[in-house]
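Homework help thread (please don't just give me the answer)

Our assignment gives two proteins as sequence + structure token strings and asks us to describe the second one. The first is just a warm-up. Here they are:
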Amino acid sequence: MVQFESVEAWVDRYRVAWESNKPDDIRSLFTEDAQYRTEPYAEPWIGHDEIVAGWLSAADDPGETTFDWSLLGVTAEVTVIEGRAVYSGGANYRNLWVIRFADDGRATSFTEWWMTEPDPEA
């Protein structure tokens, strides 16, 4: 079963990749045949090459975001994370991540749900 510490280490590495946009940092998060979905019903990016290309096509600039998260649930099969991404000078997002991990701690499947927070001044 996945433990909080291994999830925390994975999210820390995800944030490193988010900030660096280095292909090796991105690849290190996922198994060679992993599936990454940017929305629940989106066609997945499959494998390192597609994941890296998809990630870099929508890359954020380093220092553009802060990210807070909490672990909502973890079982032997699935991990669920709630997050909040705050963009400097832009919109803020709430996220749900559903992740399935291989025994080596890399993700075999990653699906994100993200929604823009309402503007409190609107």
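The one we have to describe:
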Amino acid sequence: MNMKIPQIYIDTSVFGGAFDKEFQRASLQFFKQIREGSLLSVISSLVAEEVEIAPTKVKDLFAEIFEISSFAQISHEAVSLQEAYLKAGIVTPNSRIDALHVALATVSDCSMIVSWNFKHIVHYQKIPLYNGINQMQGCKQIGIYSPLEVINNE
């Protein structure tokens, strides 16, 4: 069986999760699968900006993964989709960066976004709302998962 390797947008929380006791095991397994090529990673300048203020070990992991990742540019299409999420009230303006991560994943043709942000991104009430706006805006649906749901546990 020839399965397509999923292209996954990684938000900033996953890089920090690699050094957080609660999220470390799944985050490290996720990055291992990226290094092995069983997952294709996509990052953005938004993630790069957020990592700038992170501890050195997070910056070092980001730099390593950056070298083997595709890069999503912040485009007019992504900002327009972000604004649609905000207008729909999926998140408040205080969480506009989270909405932009979802928008970037969507317009960058990723099959999913992976995040440890359970309040504004990986939330059972918000996922169908993001995808509803995607559909209304003529965009494809996006899978929204935590690394734990994506990694190979075998």
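TA reply:
I won't write it for you, but here's a hint about the kind of observation we're looking for: The chain has a mean pLDDT of 96.
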